[in-house]
Amino acid sequence: MVSEHVKNLPPPLAQFKEVQPKYTAAQHEAWRYIRQVSHPFYLEHAHPSYLESIELLDIPIDTIPRIAHIDDKLSQVSFGAIGVNGFIPPRAFMALQYRGVTPISTDMRIPANIGYTPSPDIVHEGLGHTTMLANLEVRRILQLFGELGIKAVSAPEDQEYYEATRHLSILEEDFVTTEEQKKEANERWKLANKAAYDAASDARRLSALHWFTVEFGLVKYNRESRIWGAALISSIDEGRNYLNRTIRPLSLETAEAQYNITIQQETLYEAESLDNILDILEKFRGTMSGTSDVGIESIIKPEERTHKFRPTEKQKRLNRIYKAMRECREQKRNTYWLRESWQKLEKEHEDDWLAPLGILEILTKGGFNPQLRSEIRASLEKKHGQSKDLEKLIGDGLALFDKAA
Questions:
Q1: What is the C-alpha separation between 130 and 151, in angstroms, rounded?
Q2: Which contacts (CB < 8 Å, 24+ apart) does range 52-57 have?
Q3: Do residues 61 and 35 make contact, with C-beta atoms less than 8 angstroms apart?
Q4: Phi, psi of 249 (to 5 degrees)
Q5: What per-residue confidence (pLDDT) applies to 113?
Q6: Are 39 and 17 in contact (CB under 8 A)?
Q7: Residue 219: its H or E element
């Protein structure tokens, strides 16, 4: 059932609706890993609205959620959701928030980008941006940001910054991008970022407040720093590091802060309460230079897709292994097949760690084939020492089902 908020979208905003694709087994497995690893941490360190929202939206662990399901559940709290194509124009994003609709990218990272993806995907928006929406104050914050965002006067430099950011995210996610292309895109982004900051338009200043609240916000709860920002919730690495960052009190002056979207944040800002954020936004209203005369009718939808996932034949073969592995987990296929699957991984996909981890989980929980379990664990532990990123990713996975076993 489509929510009333989505049904009533005007054409300039309704044009951004995207049909959600059918995801690969490998993408579902990446979602499952992220949900399993992150959920226990955020139960302890996120604002209580995290659990309330997970339960309200009935967000699954094993499979990527359908956006229509999220929209239907959000209708219970007078909100809605639509699928979109990655980075949409800021004015469209703000206008949707103002109308009580959260945009969710229909893209989904692949296992190779499980720790970080340079452009919005359904983990960032379908998990990060939705798992505070059971809270009325959070919904009011988003809608007030939307109201101010529509009214905020922007500068030409802001448009170039958006286009440079979107271009960079597309190249970073595309496997056929050359290092020279990435270098050129990064240089363009750096120049655009500085120019937009120097222009200091109302839109740019509001975006800084949005970045350090809705994306990377902390809030006090029972005298403790709790996470509520979507970027922190959707990136377990950034989320875990939040207490190791410089934490400053959120204030109106945060609108003047610089930020870099391409690296982990060195400084985070903490609000005294969610109401405190609403107060700061009202103070921001008083600093605005005027009201923009640019309506939503002028918004142009980008034609280029953000994620250009073009799987190679090798990646297609790897996905077939993920599919069969999930069928074993769901008892639709005999687990004796896992030995053959492991041999294929060792022979052709030695860089992949998520599928071996999934096979080891099935064998461990079922008490099957101790010799094969030992062989897979030894291989994973060898990969474990190859880099700090792999050490954390594999270590977190092993810890999950070791604890459950």
A1: 24
A2: 52/134, 52/135, 53/130, 53/131, 53/132, 53/133, 53/134, 53/135, 54/131, 55/134, 56/133, 56/134, 57/130, 57/131, 57/133, 57/134
A3: yes
A4: -70, 135
A5: 74
A6: no
A7: strand 217-221
User: Which residue in 209, 297, 187, 302 sits closest to 256, CA to CA?
Assistant: 209
Q: What is the DSSP letter of 255?
A: G
Cβ 94 vs Cβ 296: under 8 Å: no
336 residue type, one letter: Y
| DSSP codes of every residue in 227-239 | E--HHHHH-HHHH
Q: Which helix (H) or strand (E) holds 396?
A: helix 388-404
Tokens read off for 108: 């989904």
Residue 403 banded pLDDT, cuts 50, 70, 90: low
Beta strands in 1-141 (DSSP E): 80-84, 101-105
CA distance 346 to 341: 9
Instruction: Give the integer Cα–Cα distance in Å for 61 and 308.
Output: 25
Q: Tell me, rounded to whole angstroms, the distance of Cα 82 from its chain centroid.
A: 15
**Chain mean position to CA 250:** 23
C-alpha span between 58 and 145 (Å, rounded): 26
Task: Tell me the C-alpha distance between 129 and 125, whole Å.
Answer: 5
| Model confidence, pTM | 0.93
Q: Which SS3 state, helix, strand or coil, does residue 226 take?
A: strand
Nearest to 42 by CA among 103, 121, 122, 127: 127
Is residue 117 a contact partner of residue 51, using CB atoms and an 8 Å limit?
A: no
Q: How far apart are CA 230 and CA 49, in angstroms?
A: 12
Among 140, 118, 128, which residue's Cα sits nearest to residue 59? 128
CA distances from 11 to 74, 95, 114, 299, 346 (A): 21, 12, 35, 10, 51
Cα torsion angle, 224, 230, 233, 239, sign: negative
With tokens 């008490």, the residue in question is: 367
Find out whether 219 and 45 touch, Cβ atoms under 8 Å: no
Q: What's the mean pLDDT in 396-400?
A: 87
Q: Kindly report, residue by residue over 27-70, the tens digit of the pLDDT.
A: 999 999 999 999 999 999 999 999 999 999 999 999 999 999 99
Concatenating the DSSP letter of every residue in 16-49 gives T--PPPPPPHHHHHHHHHHHHHHHHHHHHHB-TH
Using the predicted structure, report yes or no on whether residue 404 has a pLDDT greater than 70: no
- Which one-letter DSSP state was computed for residue 211? I
The pairing of strands 246-249 and 267-271 is parallel
